[in-house]
Amino acid sequence: MTQPATVRRVPRHRPTPLLAVAVDLAARAVPTLPLRAGKLPFGNCAACANNMCGGRPVMKTAGPCTCPGVCHGWAAATTDARTLTSPAWVRAWGQAQTVAYHPGGAGLTVVDLDNTDAITWARQHLPTTRTVPTTRGEHWIYRGTMQSANKVRPGVDIKSTMSYARWLGPGTGTMIALPDAVRALIVKKPSPVRPVTVPMPAGGGVCRHRTPAYLERGIAMAEQQITEATTGVHATVYRTFLAVLSAHGRCGCLTDAHTGRLFAAAQAKGETVRHCTEAWTNAHTRLGL
Predict the structure, then answer these.
(1) Could you tell me which residues come within 8 angstroms of residue 10 by beta carbon, excluding any fewer than 6 positions away?
(2) Helix (H) or strand (E) holding 109
């Protein structure tokens, strides 16, 4: 008598406690993703390479990952319960060590205070908001988003857009709107202006073919051109130096004070003294001065 064929049962993945937390957060519009050991995201799926998802580098944009696997770090975070409970994701949750979320996707900013010194600083300089204890410090959470940045101060990171943070519970305290004091932490402060002495062409400081008013207007316009540059600052500085020297570099009417004003405008836009000196020297060479 023929024995009935043995039916192999495909093992079903049971929801894990971490997955339950993730689904609960997703229901509250908090995009989540699993982290493996070391607080690291899972690797790209087989369809991806070099963090490319659908032909675009997701790590450099604000959009979510659209891959079926748990790819691309923060961009994998989702509020879609069907995605979170899909076979590929359930397997990842089974290997995960903790739950992470995308603060920016939830409309939040996390000030990650990594030690007691950072916490002391925050209590002195930042408005009190919702606080979550971490392994070594605290997360201060504000409503609103901003650009993420690491090491804005010793022991202080900003996690908001294009970043992820560990979910360590809802925390305590009343969450407030993102203050300017936090936004200011990522603003790059210009390097202090340093006086520079640059060799000038001979000529006694007297312009034989331009009036002092013309020279003053030219320097002021050059300062304005550098100050208003929004892109290509280095190229703008070089072109401006070239224009000033082409008009006044041969007669010797430029003084150290004029040069200092130009260098100060460039340094206020983030140029270093070395870059300013190189641009000035290259302009001299280009004009044969």
Answers:
(1) none
(2) strand 108-113
CA dist., res. 72 & res. 76, Å (int) = 6
Structure-token pair, residue 40: 């690291």
pTM (whole model) above 0.70: no
Q: Report d(CA 277, CA 289) in Å as an integer.
A: 15
Cα separations in angstroms, 29 against 52, 119, 140, 217, 283: 26, 28, 19, 56, 56
State the alpha helices, DSSP H only, in the chain. 17-27, 81-84, 87-95, 116-125, 180-183, 212-227, 233-248, 256-268, 273-287
Pairing of strands 149-153, 52-53: unpaired
Q: Are 63 and 117 in contact (CB under 8 A)?
A: no
Catalogue the E-assigned strands of 128-253.
130-133, 138-143, 149-153, 156-159, 165-166
As a whole number of Å, the CA-based R_g of the chain is 29
pLDDT tens digit sequence for 108-160 = 999 999 999 999 999 999 999 999 999 999 999 999 999 899 999 999 999 99
* Category of 203 on φ-ψ map: left (φ > 0), alpha (ψ -120 to 50) or beta: left
